[in-house]
Write a structure and sequence with these properties.
The chain is α/β, with parallel strands linked by helices and 156 residues long. The protein has 8 helices and 5 strands. It is elongated, with a radius of gyration of 19 Å.
Length: 156
């Protein structure tokens, strides 16, 4: 499948790398930015750029806002970068429902592997070695007991 225009739903170096790869493939890129990132390098490296409402990370987590920009600018694909929405099954699903190709895992894969507890359980079930870890959220006392059990005496 060939894309014509890709919205990069991230900022900074990751956005620049995605846009550079897109350019090498002849794909136009759209950068998004929060109010406080308006002068960031990724904004200048994109073929087009659009502001998102708000400041900081919150602006990049607005699925509806990101998809609205993609729709208005005629994007046919969206790349989440890493962090922010890169492990969001909801974002992948909403992108597909908006008629965009999500450049990343399918929503059902993200739903399974985006939940670290479920992903660890699946790995164990399949015989994949995993490092020692807790089974989920832990209290301070449980965390201390876990570290003591590693033989490190709780030192980090």
């Amino acid at each position: 499948m060939t894309f014509r225009k890709l919205l990069v739903a991230n900022r900074g170096e990751v956005a620049i790398r995605v846009m550079s790869a897109a350019s090498e493939l002849g794909i136009r890129s759209v950068a998004v930015f929060s109010e406080d990132d308006a002068r960031s390098l990724h904004v200048r490296r994109a073929d087009e750029a659009r502001a998102l409402p708000g400041r900081g990370a919150r602006a990049y987590l607005d699925i509806d806002g990101l998809l609205e920009v993609a729709r208005k600018l005629g994007c046919d694909a969206v790349h989440p970068g890493y962090g922010f929405l890169s492990e969001s099954a909801a974002f992948a699903k909403a992108s597909a429902e908006a008629g965009l190709t999500f450049v990343g895992p399918r929503p059902e894969t993200l739903a399974l592997l985006g939940d670290k507890t479920r992903a660890r359980a699946l790995a164990r079930e399949l015989g994949v070695p995993v490092l020692a870890g807790s089974a989920g959220p832990a209290t301070l006392e449980q965390a201390a007991a876990f570290f003591d059990g590693l033989g490190a005496g709780g030192a980090m």
